Amino acid sequence: MPRCAQDRRRHRVRHRRHQVRCRHPAGPVLQGLPAPVRSPTVKTSATVRALSREFKAQADPEYRKSVQRFFKEPVKLYGVRTPVFREIVRCHWQKVRDLPKHEILGLCEELLALGNGEERGAAFEWALRMRRQLAPADFYRLERWLKRHVSNWAACDSLCCGVLGFFLLDHPGFLSRLRAWARARNRWLRRAAAVAHIVSIRRGRALPQACAVAGILLEDPDDMVQKGYGWMLKEMANSRPREVFDFVMKRRARMPRTALRYAIEKMPRSWKRRAMAKPREA
After folding, report:
1. Residue 280 φ/ψ, nearest 5 degrees
2. Helices (DSSP H) in the chain: which residue ranges?
3. What InterPro entries does the record point to (predicted)?
């Protein structure tokens, strides 16, 4: 991209961030943008309506179109650039952070019911910010969110590397539940079975459970699932490279190449050659 185009793009992002203020209402709605995706039966609070209005006011149609190329399926979003999105979420969090836990989670449920990417991201972020208040019973709420409100890889990874991943770090007894997800028909549950381990893996935990899930998903035909468990193995390899290499070498004849490439991405070049070679050549 030419430098002048890059400068204009940076200026637009800075300008939009400057417009976001906690004490000021959202600006005028951009013309030609779709209405928020919501069911006619969904009732929203003033807090959620204000957040949605600000997302829509800060929407960038050009950005919305560009994001679609990263997904195979259509995604519903306004097109708020990431720095602006984070600032809006932070500002509105300041207004609700002192509410009781059940009220904040209720607001998250309202946001998820709207069906747009930005509101879903805000719900996951707010839930993450109150992770210390979550109790074991909240696992079933997070599982329900995964089943009902995750329909693409970005939403899956946002939930799994956010509030769900940290919940499992704080309550490791629920890690065993992920094996059932690995056998589910829902592709996003299967991807989540792997990706939800990553927060714990980065802290040196849940390695046996992660290997068990990788074994279940080993021959999964879905490329989104293959990338998910391959990414999980790559994270394991950061601290246990030999263990992951041995895991891969024993199973590489049955392991899809997509998952294999992800798993060995950061390994030494000689190890990569051995892993990618045909079995008789290793």
Report:
1. -75, -15
2. 3-19, 46-57, 61-67, 82-96, 101-114, 117-129, 139-149, 153-160, 163-170, 178-182, 187-195, 198-201, 207-217, 223-237, 241-251, 257-264, 269-276
3. ARM-type_fold (IPR016024), DNA_alkylation (IPR014825)
Q: Is residue 144 part of a domain?
A: no
Tell me whether residue 151 is in a domain: no
One-letter amino acid for residue 178 of the chain: L
The two structure tokens encoding residue 248: 């891969």
Q: What is the pTM of this model?
A: 0.84
Close Cβ partners of 105 (under 8 Å, ≥ 6 residues apart):
127, 138, 141
Q: What is the CATH number of the domain that holds 272?
A: 1.25.10.90
Q: Is residue 142 part of a domain?
A: no
How far is 44 from 87, CA to CA, in rounded Å?
Answer: 22
Tokens 């709207």 identify what position? 114
Contact 161, 195 (CB under 8 A): yes
What is the tens place of the pLDDT at every residue in 61-105?
Answer: 999 999 999 998 889 999 999 999 999 999 999 999 999 999 999
What is the domain extent for residue 89?
1-133
In terms of domains, do 6 and 126 share one? yes
Is 99 part of any domain? yes
